[in-house]
Amino acid sequence: MTPLRILLVDDHPVVRAGMRALLTSRDGLDVVGEAASGEQALDLVAAERPDVVLMDLRLGAGMDGAKATAAIVARPDPPRVVVLTTYDTDTDILRAVEAGASGYLLKDSDPEVLVSAVWAASRGETVLNPDVAQRLYRRIRSPRVDLSARETEIVSLVARGLSNRAIAKELFVTEATVKSHLVHVFSKLGVDSRTAAVAAARERGLID
Amino acid sequence: MTPLRILLVDDHPVVRAGMRALLTSRDGLDVVGEAASGEQALDLVAAERPDVVLMDLRLGAGMDGAKATAAIVARPDPPRVVVLTTYDTDTDILRAVEAGASGYLLKDSDPEVLVSAVWAASRGETVLNPDVAQRLYRRIRSPRVDLSARETEIVSLVARGLSNRAIAKELFVTEATVKSHLVHVFSKLGVDSRTAAVAAARERGLID
DNA sequence: TCCCCGGTCAATCGAAAGTTGGATTCCGGC
DNA sequence: GCCGGAATCCAACTTTCGATTGACCGGGGA
């Protein structure tokens, strides 16, 4: 049987070396490339046609892991993409899953788990870390809120500590308008103050 | 010449494998142990007596990297500790340096940089990532602010979105007291609103 | 010892923030 | 076409926040 062809995507050389070391010591697994950025990952997917891509979500500057994942699975006859990351915030997970990832693992997973996840992904199965699965479940139950572009913009400025007046000046509207947007934000997030809105928006990954 | 004895400390198996792979391929370097926690690191330092410890700052549950570093350098004839981490917030850096770290590198550093940093540390030199050095410099110039325990507690609650009244209830004090603390926080951070205080405290790593 | 600092509280006042209600525009569906 | 909904905008009103001043207590360090 031909070995499974694997592409590693991570902006940290140390992590790439670690994945390579953990995977190449296994029979039937072949690391055919390493990419340090999303752009490079796309090139290597086209050139090497791997079976499985191990993808970090945070890739420093440029395209992030979720975007790169989406671009990869949009290709004809795409490889499976398994996300392997340190972060487990709701939004990160949701974005990765929406982008079409076949798995979501945390970097503190056991090497065994990692290897079996790669195999499972190659068979078309979906592999989720238990914590991650639980978060996803919670998220699906609670209705998805999304703020309009304007609202997000304003909450971001609030989070930076600007007053309504300062925000109004920044966006060339009146203070009343800023307040009005904030009222809508408050109701969408189920809070009743700017600080709580920032906390809620941050928790749901709507800002930052 | 006897090889340099190195101990790896990181809670992520992948990262440990990566460091091991990058270091063991070099002449004169010998990885003598791996620890997944601060407690384990202390044991292994005592048992293996390494020359250099590569230490992650975030170690999951239990003792964090800064504490572990401090405990290690407090030993008789201690090894050099080089911090190797993903995070580069001001507080992390400062805590590591204060704990007695001989170096501070980011995980996106080149393997070459990593290797030469290990050698430099073994010779007693201090190795700082340029970004890190710059942050340290900025930090030293701007007078160090630190909030009292009570003040930090209150800012954290503000960051969670609580009103003064709610904070007062939470801490069993009156609203006047909360306001009084916030006045001090505002003046220490150079801001004039609760949201700006949260932003400033977050930026300086005083909360979260 | 005395003084300073951290934590506690009170009263007041002006300035933000938050509430209510309403206007306009744009867009997709019946 | 017409309607409903959502996004953006605005103004007047009420509440909370923040500034200011002043006070009390307890625990260290000079």
From TrEMBL, chains A, B:
4-aspartylphosphate modification, residue list: D56
Residue ranges of every copy of the HTH luxR-type domain listed in the record: 140-205
Keyword Transcription regulation: yes
The keyword Transcription regulation belongs to this UniProt entry's keyword annotation: yes
Keywords for this protein: DNA-binding, Phosphoprotein, Transcription, Transcription regulation
Span of domain Response regulatory: 5-122
One Pfam family cited in the UniProt record for this chain: GerE
InterPro entries: CheY-like_superfamily, NreC/VraR/RcsB-like_REC, Sig_transdc_resp-reg_C-effctor, Sig_transdc_resp-reg_receiver, Tscrpt_reg_LuxR_C, WalR-like
PROSITE patterns in alphabetical order: HTH_LUXR_1 (PS00622), HTH_LUXR_2 (PS50043), RESPONSE_REGULATORY (PS50110)
CDD domains: LuxR_C_like, REC_NarL-like
Protein name, per record: Response regulator transcription factor
Species name: Rhodococcus olei
